[in-house]
Amino acid sequence: MAAMVKGVEIECLPELVGYLKDQITKFGVNIRLGKKVDARVVEKIKPDAVILATGGVPVMPEIPGIDNRKVISGEKLHRKLRFYLGFLGPVALRRLTRFWLPIGKRVVVIGGAIQGCELAEFLVKRGRSVTIVDTGEVLGEGMIHHLRQQLILWFEQKGVTMMTGVKYEEITDEGLTLLTREGERKTIEADTIIPALPLAPNTALMESLEGKVPEIYAIGDCNQPRLIVDAIRDGLRTGLTI
Question: Which residue(s) pair with 71 in the sheet?
Fold first, then answer.
């Protein structure tokens, strides 16, 4: 999914995934797919250590009208695209999204951190008129500094509206109503509204295992939602620790 949104020109994530698959197969890792894991499954295995890489969970902003038909959650959009990913792969699907997306022409992205900025870039390249809104004061949180600067400049050149320091009031059939930094009440008309807030760590399994196994480690977004390179570093450090 990340490769479909980000492209493969700078970071070829499918090749990275392929490399990691080859390595764990080469070194005899016992892989079991298609099975839900809970505390009972782990206790039955009786492991000396458990490493949790259960990722993050989507966060929906608490805005009156968030269940409006215009709102497409990142999770819902992910499910739709994932279905086609299984048949086409990220590169082909990325090309096809230039011709069709289940998203209107005027889009409001709620959240201006790395998730919202990357989504906005993806949508602008597919002919959407995009407005990014955020309660924080700075866009691009979580991005590498020079890439953030380049993207903000590109947004300005492409006519992307960027609004920081806002307060959300409500979502209606017309769009998103908010208070600007200056205190002006404004409605951003939109065909589609997409919340793209940073993930929250998925700690449910970890909490259910506390006190039941000798060692527990949380890595990646399960520990703290960050970048792919951070998740890989977590895995390396944890492996060395064990």
Answer: 193
Token representation of residue 139: 């866009």
Query: In the numeric block, which tokens belong to residue 108?
Result: 């409001």
Rounding to the nearest 10 degrees, give the CA dihedral for residues 114, 116, 119, 121. Answer: -80
Paired tokens of 182 = 């200056």
Q: What is the pLDDT of residues 109-148, one digit of tens each?
A: 999 999 899 999 999 999 999 999 999 999 998 888 888 9
52: domain CATH number?
3.40.50.720
pLDDT at residue number 108: 97
Tell me if 85 sits within 8 A of 4, measured CB to CB: yes
Q: Based on the domain organization, do 174 and 70 belong to the same domain?
A: yes
Domain that holds residue 50: 2-56+200-241
> Does 214 share its domain with 190?
no
Q: Are residues 180 and 68 in the same domain?
A: yes
Domain identity same for 65 and 78: yes
What gap in Å lies between CA 164 and CA 184, rounded to an integer? Answer: 13
What is the number of structural domains in the chain?
2
Residue 157's pLDDT band, with cuts at 50, 70 and 90, is very high
pTM of the entire predicted model = 0.85
Single-letter amino acid code for the residue at 196: A
